[in-house]
Amino acid sequence: MIVISKIKLADARAELGMTQLSLSVFASVSKQVIVNAEKGLAIQRIGAHRILRVLNAERQARSMPSLSITDIDWKIVGE
Question: What SS3 class is residue 3?
């Protein structure tokens, strides 16, 4: 049996060598949004998509597979 678990945002970010600040700048969200998401607090869907876009751009540049919004263990307002 294969169990696929969700990746923590902090792990996805660290895997790329990004700081919370650098991710927030590239995603055009406040650093607090990153902090909140990593703490398991809910963030707005637009912020999640911005973060995901930056993570996937970095992953693509490193020939890593893209992540979907459901691959990350985070809480999104309205889900």
Answer: coil
